[in-house]
Design brief:
Number of helices of chain A: 17
Shape of chain A: globular
Distance between the termini of chain A: 63 Å
Structural class of chain A: alpha/beta
CATH architecture of the largest domain in chain A: 2-Layer Sandwich
Strand order of the largest sheet of chain A: 13-12-11-14-16-15
Oligomer: homodimer
Helix content of chain A: 25-40%
Chain lengths: 619, 619
């Protein structure tokens, strides 16, 4: 049997195989936030002809059903079938992500006042040439010389030794011995070979970013990024953990993300004509689950009480083990994690923010697919995860999508006519709404009176924009061939997410005996952080009502921290110390969390005195 | 195109591919001592029909040529061809090799007075179960406990960690931590799991032997052995080194011998119902080239002046790296080598002989595919290689073969009629002659006057056994459908080999300022050593004329030493010390070697006063 796509492409499908599965096997990936369980309603395709059976799904409206729209994960062809993949179900990969500025990075590194000290060190050695009289083996010859120089206990792997003999001769016995602390020999190279590169990698749940760095001067040579292809197995960390614990899932997830990194790597390495053997170290930053998956470690125990990761502080393993396509012997440093839901990305972020060095008390928040927060200063640090869920990434929202082309990213609602005007990424016809658009539209609806503080539509207002949809009341943000709406159910989901973030912040600050007034600085990190409108986020009560001038947007601090660790031994030590020093609070088990959360399930909050600027606006 | 074998089997062959190559590709291996260069004349097949072209070879007699006999390596079919593989060209594998006696081994180990101390050590640990409050990662939990017990700096590989989390839970947090010195964690197991096994492996140029040992009591559970399948790429060490340095050859040789070991392993492990994960360490002994090939190290520099191995003292690497099918984390100890042509097998042999512990001065010799010798006592040790070549294994001898079924292993010649009587391994029709048979027939011919002291046939004697063959004069040892002969050229080759061994012994003893009288003990090791008739070997002047009671036959000491090292840390240390202490003499560059060698190119020797017992016999 075959699936004929509207593009003309034909794809084989087995008996009793879902359309989603067949497409995935052939490399056509759909948005399937739930991992193909029929619950997210995203993998919509239109059947244009052919026999099939499909499970009824509340996620498909009657009108759409009549058009032949089905969920690909719940639909099984019974003979050849013609299928059109709907625009919003198509998984767009490879979008451009704001390019880091090399100058800013270099300046940030300089501001730490550290020398460049890569993970791989070098030792200049001139060996006496072997003769019939001095016939000890190559390894013993090297060891003898190291002993003369006072270096003892060097370890030698089979990988090192298998290339050493030829390299010693090729470089005429005058070599640089590359090694890491331990000490362990990494490779032998010529004295003249001075090109040394490293990579910094951020493995986000949604996005993978790679920096290629010149280790001689710390310059950013190039950046590459892509969506984390693990998305095909589910949007959020929990769905991926579940997939990892199913037969073969762990290897699948590991291979997928490694392939993403290698694809970027190979492209930028080739572009700059660099020999991959000269890429001699890597630093990886990611949340705890991403770090476990990258190293092929079963993350299963992360989601079972009492939520224990296998490793927080990762040993220095090799690129060969990590399956990265750089020098196989290159050491790979992994940013240390703090707990199951506070990972190396947050340690990286705290490092990049410098809050661990300053006397002022700061709040750090990284709002990505999950929300993590940290509070503290140079004396103490506490951290927590908010389990906000991925709704700001589009998951669980009827027309939700990521901040890519076609996403409504900003909305204004005319206070008299309730007519919305939208701005769309790429200035095209909108196909959905992304996180910043959601925050905008909810705050605008609140201010203009379309919704009340409970997030419910005010049915009395007069506008054709408010209507009854398949899933209850909805507000039409954009009218067109396809209307883009926000439903009452969507608003509930967004309120749950923002309440989780706010409750996390509020509780964490309380737990350390502080109030919001004590917070002297707020660092907002994460891809999301780039577009976030603070005023609007305060209006819906996602961010606390703190003066706008205290906010600093840092962008992707996970990759920034990885970059810093690539360049400096001191900063790697600082990262380890941050992870050790951070006290993790498991909010979900705190009695007070539910109280804080319930109080925050209001716009902006049940206690309006906490949001004086919003209270003023609402008057 | 196809080759149709007389067995009925059909094998595909490409255009311009030799019959040898096509057979090899299909898993049919012929004896090809020279590696397929047309010089050894062993890979004889009979063409029964079909068109082909073949290079003329002096190795095929006119009579044989007329029968359609050709060298498979020099023959290229031009269309479908029918081929019969001649019995003597068939590479027989899997012959039985004398089974070691478990009792003797245990007794030998006891005689060293050492406790059993395997490479993998164990540590009993009971970890507190994680809770919401005590939520550190599994690895940090383990490290914390180790710190309490005063163990610091333990290393953890990705392989260890990837199975640790599940194992800790499976064994209810009460575990044995298996580790090696370094220290490095190897695996986690239950307190109750007390079955522990190890393997000792001898990688000979010709034979591979594996012992499966119970580490709790040192008992030999089973033995397996096979021919080293690297033979298909050539008989001797040099041919293999050459093959290793040709594209892909190194990996081919490595895979071949690893497969041999794994085949034996899997058979005996399965036979005894042992879980391969419980085979937790290995010791490997082999000559320098075999050890390099086993670890995938290019042996190319071994044969180039100044003859430098890449490694003599091998680090402790893992079974996973070695590709052995036991616990992947199992450490593999490699017996240290001394020089390019004195390897771990000799260190192993010296250890097993205990000559390094005794005050009496001993001569140790291992006559296998090569000949290596050592002289010394508990104060000093010198060693040398003789480069005798593989003629005693059958290579370079017209009807030479290994000591397997069908080989003439002993010969007597009636002093009046010159009629020989032979004894054949397996009591079958003889198809060739092996090393001990060669020594017998030459010594008998010398005593009975068939040859003179130069190894030339005495043409005057009256016997039909002496005749003109294709390659000059020859003596018919056995008459039958196929006559088995020894040619004058064969005798020359054997004399060169025995002269090399004798010259090595004589020179080494001289170099240390000794005479034969100072040698209080002679240890003869090697597969060859099992069958060697000392009297006859003295008659031809291969062994020095030392009283017979000083000789001790030790059999395969390479595997015995590996067994000892598997059981005891002290004995591994002793092996390292033997290797360090042994002074290697490169005989081939010594001015005196040529003199010694030339003098020994006589039967028994140009200086008969060195062989008083033989002088008596010759009278």
């Amino acid at each position: 049997m075959n699936i004929k796509l509207s593009t003309g492409k034909s794809i084989p499908i087995a008996k009793d195989e879902s359309i989603l599965s067949a497409l995935k096997r052939s490399g056509v990936y759909l948005v399937a936030s739930c991992g193909g369980k029929g619950t997210c309603g995203k993998c919509r395709v239109k059947i244009q002809g052919g026999k099939y059976r499909t499970s009824a799904s509340g996620k498909i409206s009657q009108v759409d059903k009549e058009k032949g729209i089905v969920l690909a994960c719940q639909t099984f062809p019974e003979n050849d079938i013609s299928v059109e993949i709907l625009e919003e179900a198509r998984l767009v990969v490879g979008d451009k992500i704001a390019l880091a500025k090399s100058k800013d990075l270099a300046e940030l590194f300089r501001s730490f006042g550290k020398e460049i000290a890569p993970i791989v060190k070098r030792f200049n050695i001139k060996l006496p040439r072997p003769t019939i009289e001095d016939h000890i083996s190559d390894l013993e010859r090297l060891k003898r010389e190291l002993e003369i120089k006072g270096i003892k206990g060097m370890r030698f792997s089979q990988a090192f030794i298998s290339s050493m003999a030829d390299d010693l001769r090729k470089h005429n016995w005058e070599i640089h011995l590359a090694y890491v602390d331990g000490p362990e020999a990494i490779f032998v190279t010529s004295e003249k070979q001075t090109s040394r590169y490293g990579i910094a990698v951020d493995i986000g749940t949604t996005t993978v970013v790679v920096y290629l760095i010149d280790l001689s001067d710390g310059k950013l040579i190039d950046v590459g990024s892509t969506y984390n292809s693990q998305i095909r197995y589910g949007d959020d960390v929990i769905t991926r953990i579940v997939h990892a614990t199913e037969g073969g899932g762990l290897e699948e997830l590991r291979d997928t993300v490694t392939e993403d990194i290698n694809n970027i790597l190979e492209t930028i390495i080739e572009k700059h004509g660099i020999n991959k053997e000269h890429v001699e170290c890597a630093v990886v930053s990611g949340n705890t689950t991403m770090s476990h998956l990258f190293w092929g470690l079963n993350p299963g125990h992360i989601r079972e009480e009492p939520y224990i990761p296998t490793v927080n502080s990762f040993p220095l393993w090799k690129a060969g083990t990590a399956r990265l396509h750089i020098n196989k012997q290159a050491p790979v440093y992994t940013l240390p994690c703090v707990a199951s839901y506070v990972g190396g990305d947050i340690v990286s972020g705290v490092l990049a923010s410098k809050m661990h060095k300053n006397t002022e008390t700061a709040l750090f928040m990284d709002i990505g697919t999950n929300g993590e927060i940290a509070v503290g200063n140079n004396e103490w640090l506490v951290t927590a995860a908010c389990s906000a869920g991925p709704c700001f990434e589009g998951s669980g929202i009827k027309h939700g999508m990521r901040a890519t082309e076609g996403a409504i990213e900003a909305v204004k609602i005319a206070p008299d006519t309730f007519e919305p005007s939208v701005s769309v990424i790429g200035n095209t016809v909108p196909i959905g709404i992304c996180g910043s658009g959601m925050i905008d539209v909810i705050s605008e609806m609140l201010i203009s009176g379309v919704i009340d503080q409970k997030g419910k539509f005010v049915r009395e207002i007069k506008t054709g924009r408010l209507r009854q949809g398949d899933e209850g009341m909805e507000f039409v943000i954009h009218k067109g061939a396809k209307d883009i709406v926000l439903t009452e159910v969507d608003i509930e989901n967004i309120m749950r997410a923002k309440a989780a973030i706010y409750a996390g912040i509020a509780l964490l600050i309380k737990e350390v005996g502080f109030t919001l007034d004590n917070i002297e600085r707020v660092y907002v990190a994460g891809g999301f952080g780039n577009y976030l409108n603070v005023d609007r986020a305060i209006i819906i009560g996602m961010l606390p009502d703190i003066p706008k001038e205290k906010f600093r947007f840092l962008g992707n601090t996970s990759i920034t921290g990885a970059y810093l660790c690539l360049l400096s031994e001191d900063l790697r030590q600082e990262a380890e110390e941050i992870a050790r020093k951070m006290t993790y609070m498991e909010l979900s088990v705190s009695r007070n969390f539910m109280d804080e959360y319930m109080s925050a399930l209001f716009l902006p909050h049940t206690d309006l005195s906490l949001f004086p600027t919003v209270a003023k606006l609402l008057k």
